[in-house]
Specification:
Number of strands: 0
Structural class: mainly alpha
Number of domains: 1
Order of helices and strands: HHHH
Largest sheet: none
Number of helices: 4
Distance between the termini: 27 Å
Strand content: under 5%
Helix content: 25-40%
Shape: globular
């Protein structure tokens, strides 16, 4: 996450998220599913938007079956693609190194 220019977080993999809708829509996030989380966090950091972690607790119940929709190869490729796009953009956009901002996206 940090290599892509995102904020330093104790847990970027899971958690309950609340996004300010107007600002989030302006970030230009193209990813879906889990990759949305990574991209929105990185782009928010590029824009200088504050990212606040607030600890929460969750009780999943010990008697409930744990269902996973994780598909190792497909999900790895999606994650790889998302990180590759973000890291490449950061490497080839010097303004993201010093100012923490991303250039305006063209429409």
């Amino acid at each position: 996450m940090r290599v892509s220019g995102g904020p330093r977080l104790s847990d970027s993999q899971s958690g309950f998220r609340i996004y300010p809708l107007p600002e989030t829509l302006e970030l230009g996030v193209t990813a879906r599913r889990y990759q949305f989380e990574v991209e929105v966090l990185a782009r928010a950091a590029w824009q200088g938007m504050p990212v606040v972690e607030v600890p929460i607790s969750a009780d999943y119940g010990s008697t409930l079956p744990r269902i996973s929709h994780f598909r190792p190869f497909v999900d790895f490729m999606r994650n790889f693609g998302a990180f590759t796009r973000l890291i490449t953009r950061r490497v080839f956009t010097p303004s993201l190194w010093s100012t923490g901002r991303t250039p305006s996206r063209s429409r």
